[in-house]
Amino acid sequence: MGEALPPPDEALDRLKDHVGKPFTTRLLSDRRGSRAWKIEGPKGTVALKANNPDDDTARDKAAEMAQEDDHLVRLTDAGVLSSGYRVGAGAWEGGRWLAVRWIEGTPVWSAFAPARAPQDGLPAVRPWLLGVARTWAEWLGQMHAAGWVHADVQPTNTLVTDEGSAAVIDYALACGPGDGPRLPYRGALTHTTAPEIADAILSTAADIHIQAEPPADIWGLGASLFWCWTGQRPVAYEDDTAREEKLKAIATGVTLSLDNVRPWVFPEFEKVIRACLAPAPRDRPSSTDLATLLTS
Ligand SMILES: Nc1ncnc2c1ncn2[C@@H]1O[C@H](COP(=O)(O)OP(=O)(O)OP(=O)(O)O)[C@@H](O)[C@H]1O
Ligand SMILES: [Mg+2]
C-alpha cells in the first residue's frame, strides 16, 4: 500500500473479503491506457485491472474493460472459463475495473529465454516447447469449440506455468457468438495480426467491426511462437514503420524464413509454426488438429 499508483479504492473495497486481510498490492503494468496490480491476501490472490483515466492516447479502455467483463461472464456460462476465474468488476471514479483469479506464470517472451539461446536445443527444452504449444492450442480449442475467438493471441496475453502449460488471459477483444453491440474489433497487437485481419482493417472504415475467425487465432499463435523462439517478429518491417505499412506487409502473407532466423534446428516445432503461419486461413490447422499433432 502507499505506492505511487494505488489501485482504485472502489475495487479494493469489493475485493477485500475475497483476498482477506491484510493484503498487499503491487503494480504489474501501466501501458496502453490500462494498469494492472497483483492483490495478494491470506484468502486469495487476484489480478486487478483498471483503465488509466489520464491516458487520452489510449483507446477507450473503460469501455473495453466493461466489454471484457461481459466476455468473462459469457465464457464462464459457456463452460470455457472456470466459474472462479472472474472475481468481480465495477465502476470507479475514473472509469471501470475488473478482477480475475491470479494465475502463477511467466509471460511467454521471458519464459522462452532459454529456448532462444543458440545451444542446439538442450534436450529438456524440446518437449517443454512442444508442451507449451500444445496446451496453448488446447486452450484456444476450448474457445473455438464454444464459438469464440480470442482475437488478441500474443506473447503478453499468455502465461507459462511452472508445469510448462500455457494459460491464456485478456479476453477484452474476443469475438463471440451472437455478440450484441460492441466495440468494433480492428485487430490487436500489430505483430500478431493475421493477414486476413490486416487486409480487412485496411479495406474497411475504422468504425466497422471485423469478426475474427478461429484461423486468425492460429496465425497469432504461430506468430507468437516464432517471435519468442527466434527473437524476431515473423514479418519484416522496421520498428518505426507506420502501422498501416506494417499491416500492408502482413497482408501479403510473406513471413521471414525460419531457416534464416531459428536459434537451432527443431523440425517438429518448425513444422507447427509454418503450418500456423500459412497465408490462407483455410490452409492453417484447426486448434484441435494442432493439439493432436503436438500430442503424437
Ligand atoms: N489472471 C492473471 N494472472 C496473473 N497475471 C495476470 C492475470 N491477468 C492479467 N495479468 C497481468 O496483468 C497484465 C495486464 O493484463 P491484461 O493483458 O489482461 O490487460 P490489458 O489491459 O489488456 O493490458 P495490455 O493492453 O497491456 O495487454 C498482464 O500482462 C499480466 O502481467
Ligand atoms: Mg493484454
Number of helices: 11
Class of secondary structure makeup: alpha+beta
Within CATH, the superfamily of the largest domain carries the name Transferase(Phosphotransferase) domain 1
Give me the count of strands.
8
State the CATH class of the largest domain: Mainly Alpha
- Structural domain count: 2
Helix-strand layout with pairing:
Blueprint: H1 9-19, E1 24-31, E2 34-40, E3 45-51, H2 61-77, E4 86-92, E5 95-101, E6 106-107, H3 108-111, H4 113-116, H5 125-145, E7 158-160, E8 166-168, H6 195-203, H7 214-230, H8 243-251, H9 258-261, H10 267-276, H11 287-295
Antiparallel strand pairs: 1-2, 2-3, 3-5, 4-5, 6-7, 7-8
Helix pairs in contact: 5-7, 5-11, 6-8, 7-10
Adenosine-5'-triphosphate binds next to strand 1, strand 2, strand 3 and strand 5.
Structure description:
The strands form two sheets. Strands 1-2-3-5-4 form a five-stranded antiparallel beta sheet, with helices on both faces. The chain has a three-stranded antiparallel beta sheet with strand order 6-7-8. The N and C termini lie far apart (49 Å). The protein has helices spanning 9-19, 61-77, 108-111, 113-116, 125-145, 195-203, 214-230, 243-251, 258-261, 267-276, 287-295, and strands spanning 24-31, 34-40, 45-51, 86-92, 95-101, 106-107, 158-160, 166-168. The model has no long low-confidence stretch (mean pLDDT 95). 39% of the residues lie in helices and 15% in strands. The chain has eleven helices and eight strands. The chain is α+β, with helices and mostly antiparallel strands. Magnesium ion is lined by residues 156-157, 170.
